[in-house]
Amino acid sequence: MMRTIVIIFISFLISTGISAQSELDSLLMLNNQDETSFTFATFKSTRVINGQSVEKVPFGNLEFRISHRFGSTKGGGYEFFGLDQASERLGFEYGLTKWMSIGIGRSTIQKNFDGFTKITLFRQSSGKKSFPLTIDYFGSIVVTSLKWAEPDRNNYFSSRLTYCNQLLIARKMNEMFSLQLMPTVIHKNLVKTEIDRNTIPVIGIAGRIKLTNRISFSTEYYYVITASRMSVTEKNMKNCLGIGFDFDTGGHIFQLHFTNASSMVEKGFITETPDNWIKGEIHFGFNLNRQFPLVKNKNM
Q1: φ/ψ (deg, to 5) at 228
Q2: Counting beta carbons within 10 angstroms of the beta carbon of residue 294, is it exposed (0 to 12), middle (13 to 18) or buried (19 or more)?
Q3: Dihedral of alpha carbons 126, 128, 130, 134, sign
Q4: Which residues of 194-275 form beta strands (DSSP E)?
Q5: How far is CA 287 from CA 45, 58, 215, 249, 254, in A?
Q6: Residue 228 — pLDDT band, cuts 50, 70, 90?
Q7: Which of 70, 142, 154, 199 is such that its CA lies 20 to 30 A from the CA of 254?
């Protein structure tokens, strides 16, 4: 299934690459081929749903983000379709330069603290210098701060750490449609059993369809390479799938979505999702962010 998705994605890139120049000129309304113009608003937010998009917080801006996931809708009316339970992540992200942003966050699940950076390597452009894709690097570290399950044994701080390295490869096909591919590697310093692998390769794909000037539909899917799931516990984990809608209110982006993941950091929603869409184990959630300009001079 995932191989088919990737082939479709690559086919889109190849089929549109031949006419990339004319598409971008139409998109950005360019008439002067002596200038370089960069594509903007490939996605509505710095997040697609759970995962990252190629968008970054602008230089000098501070973004405050609230992410909320309710319990599984499988609980029915007795659990108010999941609204009786909730998990949260509070985070800050800052545009350090025009091509680099940094961020921190804290989640209720596993009492995780996370820090990350996102760096633009290439940006989709047309005109004098054209390039068909936007490519970002995303790297994060997550620290689990739960109390040790066995405090009497030798426990190491390094055992609390998990790393994520990811390439975000996106193309804005036209004004209405964007695609993104996310090759990812998750590394856990400590795993549950001796047969589990510390390093887990993952491939993700995401898309956005613009419905109106202020509303868009987004989806994402992360496929964990099956051979990486070794123990019974790991094999019971499911791939993360999310669908949702983005609402641009002018002051902030409000994202409503449904996903089988409750965690909001990469190690959680990519590799530690036990719930299954087919069984109705779906979580309603939202992301809400607001940006505050801290630096007036953005010519950096």
Answers
A1: -80, -15
A2: exposed
A3: negative
A4: 199-210, 215-224, 240-248, 252-259
A5: 10, 19, 14, 13, 6
A6: low
A7: 142
pLDDT digits (tens, 9 = 90+) for 102-122: 999 999 999 999 999 999 999
Distance CA 25, CA 122 (A): 18
Using CA atoms, how far apart are residues 177 and 110, in angstroms rounded to an integer? 36
List the domains of the chain with CATH numbers. Answer: 2-291 (2.40.160.40)
Report, as an integer, the average pLDDT of 174-185. 96
Are 125 and 99 in contact by the 8 Å Cβ rule? The answer is no
For 116, the token pair is 């990350």
Task: Give, to the nearest 10 degrees, the angle between helix 2-17 and helix 20-28.
Answer: 80
Structure tokens at 246: 């983005």
Q: Are 150 and 182 in contact (CB under 8 A)?
A: no
Tell me the CB-side half-sphere exposure of residue 61, using CA atoms within 13 A.
18
Q: Locate 36 and state its tokens.
A: 């370089």
